[in-house]
Protein 1
Amino acid sequence: MRSLSIYLRLLAVLLLGVPAWAAGPKEPGISVITSSASVPTKLSPDEIALIFKRKIRLSADGRQYQPVNLPASHPLRRMFSLRMFGHNPEELEDYWRDMYFHGVLPPFVLVSEEAVIRFVASTPGAIGYVSSCLVDNRVSVLIRLESSLDCPR
Amino acid sequence: MLLAGILGSVGNHAFATDETSQDRAEASESSYELGKGYRLGDSGFTIGGYSAAQYQNTRDAESRASLTHLSVFLWWENDSRLKFFSELDREREATAARNSSGTGEKHFLAVERFYLDYSFSDLLTVRGGKFLTPVGRWNLIHADPLVWTTSRPLITHQLYPDNITGLMILGNAPMFGRQADYALYASSTHDLRTAPGNDPFDHAYGGRLNLPASENLEFGVSYLSFSQHAEPNEHKHLAGLDFLWQLHGYEVSGEAAYRNSSERGEPDDRRSGGFIQGVIPLSGKLFGVARIESLSEPVLNKDIRLQVLGLNYRPSRAVSLKLEFIHGSETPTGAPVGFLSSVSVLF
């Protein structure tokens, strides 16, 4: 049975050009991801939206959440913003201007989805989002959102 | 601590070896934009602020241009539950003159805010120091680049002092399916470096609740009981309501407040008023603004009414250029009637 599995994987490499088992499931959509043990594995979409708006800042065990964004022009950021807040990033500028007056800054911006995965995987309390097809075992998925975007891989 | 933090930060950037550290460094270094402050590396400190210059041509004053505010924020936070925030403001003396017809230009370095927060949870943060009086919506975001008009509605600065020095508990929690913000506060101490011309609190206590009704609509209710330094035996009570509706660049907001006071048990000096303001996008980053406001002072037999019509051009998130015309009746000294314009920058 094991050798059959190996043959199938080799066949997949030959046909598809990539190791089929190397990454997670090739699902469409956006996955909100976190590192392993530091964040409760169950957060509702509303809670995640509030974390990204810096209204919820502390987890139940007192650890600071560290949400990270992609650049405002990134298609995935725009889709995430519409799905989570009902607004595109530009429409949230008034909100962040007011928050800045109180010493609250928007989430850090990382330049790529791979950078988000690396940051989230190694930072306690970090929460980010990437295309579901890029998710691998370095991170765990909190929720999945629908998206019409193609997988960037 | 600041020096150690900065040195630590420099070290972190200089010797980052793994990819994650580089990601963090990139995130920090690319994070400066006008209107978002400057993070001093990984020290936890951020510095920012705003400035505003104004030109006024009003009925009771000579035409003039002036720098009305140069305000600097400095705050510190890291992964702990503590946060420090300060705001120093070089403002026109007698802030008073914020709307006014004063002659001569004197400036004063005021401490607008200076406080330390300790967060037990999102539900409960304890704040000690000097902070903005949590009444209504305008006073809490009164910085020039954040508001739509150069002039400020009368009820947001004539019924209570802008700042309070004392203790506050604040936080947010789910309520009716939305995240509500609350604040409860008290003060019985001297105000920290008040600008000349202001009459600070002698003692005060109060609370505020802000409840979003939907993604686009919020309501607030405020209560404040207080006395001021000039007349410490006169106890005043203020109740206020406010709302904000926003959708695709359109905005309607308003505040209403009622204040009474009693000296030796006699009712005296009742005041009430409100404003309602609308904003519409005209073209690109140009917005039209209209506001009507009133302030009644029955004891003085005054019923002030103002109408404001203006334009606000926001070429970027941090810059705001405003032009407005104010028409009014029974306006008191200090309420500008005429043309006001300003440019303000959040940095």
Protein 2
Amino acid sequence: MSRLRTVAGLLGHFLHRQRFFLAPLLLVLLAAAVLLVLTGGLSYVAPFVYAIF
Amino acid sequence: MSAVLGISGGYHDAAAALVVDGVVVAALQEERLSRVKNDPSPPLRAARACLSIGGIAAPDRVVFYENPYARIERVLVSLLRGFPRTFRQFPRAIGAQLGSKLWILDDLAEGLGVPRAKVTFVAHHEAHAASAFYASPYPRAAVLTVDGVGEEAATAIWHGTEQGLREVAHVDYPCSLGLLYAAFTAYLGFAVNEGEYKVMGLAAWGSPRRREELAKVVQLSSDGGYELDLSYFAFHTDTELGFSSKLEALLGPRRPAERPWDLETAEDRAYADVAASLQALLEDALLGLARTARKRTEEECLCLAGGVALNAVANARIAREAGFSRVFVQPAAGDAGGALGAAILGAMKDGAPRPAPMRDAALGVAVDAGEANMLASALGFAVKRVDDRDAEVAGRLSRGEVIAFVDGRCEFGPRALGQRSILADPRAAATRERINRAVKRREPFRPFAPSALAGTELRWYDEPGDDMTRFMTTVRRAKDTTLGAVTHVDGTARLHTVDPESRFGALLSAVERESGIPVVLNTSLNGAGEPICATAADAVAFFAAHAVDALVVEDVVVTRRPS
């Protein structure tokens, strides 16, 4: 349940910044994120990974 | 009582720091305990070690050094802006963000056993700024933070006063001096996030004759701003390569990573020229930013933070030319220092006073000399306890020995400052060759630093020590070649001045009694690709695997044969 606080924080951030055009994309990706968390996530290592993500 | 734990990590060099009632009690990088160099994983080992040092069962608050929501927003927006070139990165980037990085606050709460409501965050560059300003001895200062990228900002100017920190200006990703330097690190065949020091060391061997060409890559404006021509770079679209083919068309082909360096060859001298030109460009850019900070804040003192602030050569030039009377850079200026800034900001928000100025960096775990004794004996080494440790070390150094030296708590940040060091006589240039090739097993062009008793440095260097030499974050020019092992090819040295009242200062006094000079060669106690040693077990393992003559852990002296 504590992760709901993070979801709320994320949505609150995007609302505050008025990034409404990203809302549909974000909702789809959040659904995918739940699946990723449930399946243990993924990791990726590369030299410039921090520059992009 | 208020105990606030600061956390940095997720990308490189994760760390934890603990502030109790406004006192910085502990600060430690995760790599020192996990033994993974630049370990980016959530620093739960370091956090627990900090809590243990402070005698704290659970912190009142945990503060992460970055806004994970703003980071996701920047990733999403920049991926969409870069479409279709970012198409291949999109699934992995979003997968990493939403699959793990978004949940860092939850992971910290679960890992540390604290309620999620007690885990908060501050902005990345604000954490950097706090780590510099609140660790400095200045009541008011301009603060300049420069790194690869945080949430959005890559560079920021702050004004630190009695009322707090206020952002004055910022430059956003992808115009990043940190990523510029990282891209050239990759171009020169070094590992990104690790080889940046090597580029700085290499620069001294070259001439900045490509500086004019680099003006096409980064445009500097008269108001102190800068702009990268992104067509020369790829860090915004490709995670593997930081630069584009256009940069190779401008400067020539990249240097193969696997080829050994030989600066006697014209080819490698040309790469040294590129490094020197990059260094000149970076210094010009930082100088412009620092002058702008001076103009906008009208302060006399400057604090620097962010990974770029670890460029000691640039820091020296800023101190000389930017118009400030004093400049301060704390030793963990990179992302690890963000943990310290986050902890301080969290504590001050809870009403704690501003911490006392940082006097030394020995904020990590303490060494157990008894454990070193037991482990070294079990491995068949000769072990003895000595009454006068400093005289023992001084005598060995005067006989030309190279000593692995461990004392007290380990340092916070990448610099060895006399707690986890390899020590040697600073005079013979051949000592540098021996340590580079036989002990550290690294490129022969890389320099070593001198540690000198504070107050004596003018015997060898052109200027006295300052707020930065205490933490080895600037350079001085040597007057002559007396200290050949610690003088770089360009005549500079990353001088470390040591308080005579400290334990390391007492050792340098003993060295002076033995050899006539209170100076030692001081380099970090680690082998190639390894983190700096933290525990007695790390130190004994280092001794077993590397060609040093003796290991000294407080009053325990370990040698390969009885002496």
